[in-house]
Amino acid sequence: MKEQIPSNVNSDDFDKLASILEQIVHEAIKDLNGVKIKNTDSQFQFKSWLKLFMFNAVCCCYAVLAVIRHNPTLCPEAHAMARLLLELFINIKYIYVVDPVGLSMRFYRYRRVWQYRFKESVSRLSPRHRKRYNSHADSSVLRKDYEEYMQDYGNNRQNRRYWSGKPLEQMADDIGERWLYSQVYRLQCSYTHPQSVSMISDLQIENNDIVIKRKIDMEEIDRVLGTCISLFLKLYLICDNVFRLGKKSRIEDITVRLTVLKDKHKIEQIIKEKRCPYCGELTIEKSDQCVTIPSSEGNESEEYYIFGCQNEYCVGKFHIQKTLYDDLRMNMQM
Fold first, then answer.
1. Are residues 63 and 139 in the same domain?
2. CB neighbours (10 Å) of residue 33?
3. Closest by alpha carbon to 262, among 300, 291, 297, 223?
4. pLDDT tens digits for 34-77?
């Protein structure tokens, strides 16, 4: 049964966010379908992984859209699904920035490490499984591959838990995405695993009785869809750099529009308190720069002030319409 959009959710904003996500996914599919990778390319394996990562990102976005459109109150579950986007982005950016050729090969080789470790763990549980696995034709080859590929990780057994030899947090740190891990990923994990911080919000007290009831507002939907759009655009930008799609200005334009749409309810807080809506610190500063951006129809332009967070671990950046900013400032002074 399809649920109605909750009354406290702005259906226009909901439709706009969903439409933006759907639009950029469609554009990415069209662009990447036109990319041909020759096996003589020195970065053949990296480029193949990049296309495969984007395919997984596309599937994830469609799944999030399907869930929220069917029932907006399933936002926490959509958060859990969207965690994959962040993991895809950090992993592929780490490969891209650090060593596209070498790390692509290591990522590929690690599947044999994982297969061997899985076989060993299952074999320990049951003699029947041990006999079946050991008699498999691939068993001796698998062990040989495992022993060879383990040289990538040295003597540190802890490193073998991760294909790169590093946990996701350290990879994010190495590529300048610490804020994404610390803020976004940890929030997503709170929905993925049973944690009191996310589960307690579904508890309500009515007439001195505890009732389990989920309340979803536009801010929650904005957080899910906005995060998906932002992460997908980051992946799209890597594709643009690697495959030379010519989409950089288009991606930047969508990023600005998303920021304006997402942060409408935060603008007054930014102007009045100078507090960053992302990290909560009093670190927001207004740039003298004023940018002009064409409207979505392409026949008008609007001017935006740029506000940025000065916290080194925060990437908060906000575009506020000049007319709206001037109106709010005048009202506050009155």
1. yes
2. 9
3. 223
4. 999 998 988 999 999 999 999 999 999 999 999 998 888 888 88
CA trace torsion 168, 243, 57, 320 (10° rounding):
90
Span 280-329, pLDDT tens digits: 777 777 777 777 765 544 446 677 777 778 877 676 777 777 776 776 66
Annotate 233-269 with DSSP letters as a single string.
Answer: HHHHHHHHHHHT-S-HHHHHHHHHHHHHHHTGGGHHH
Task: Tell me which amino acid residue 265 is.
Answer: H
Distance CA 258, CA 260 (A): 5
What pTM does this model have?
Answer: 0.73
CA atoms within 13 A on the CB side of 252: 8
**In DSSP terms, which residues pair with 301 in a beta bridge?**
294
Which structural domain, as residue segments, surrounds residue 326?
265-333
Please report whether residue 259 resides in a domain: no
* Same domain, yes or no: 277 and 244: no
User: Is-contact 82 228, C-beta < 8 A?
Assistant: yes
Contacts of 151 (CB under 8 A, 6+ apart): none
Neighbours of 322 (CB within 10 A): 15
Strand 284-294 versus strand 301-309 pairing type: antiparallel
CB 210 within 8 A of CB 126: no
Boundary residue ending a domain (251, 285, 315): 251
- Shared domain check, 34 and 91: yes
Residue 277 has which token pair?
């809506």
Please give the structure tokens belonging to residue 33.
Answer: 């379908």
Distance (Å) of CA 334 to CA 140, 267, 322, 325, 326: 80, 18, 18, 14, 12
The SS3 of residue 228 is helix
Stretch (H or E) spanning 326: helix 322-333
The residue type found at 264 is K
Instruction: Find residue 211's DSSP bridge partners.
Output: 204
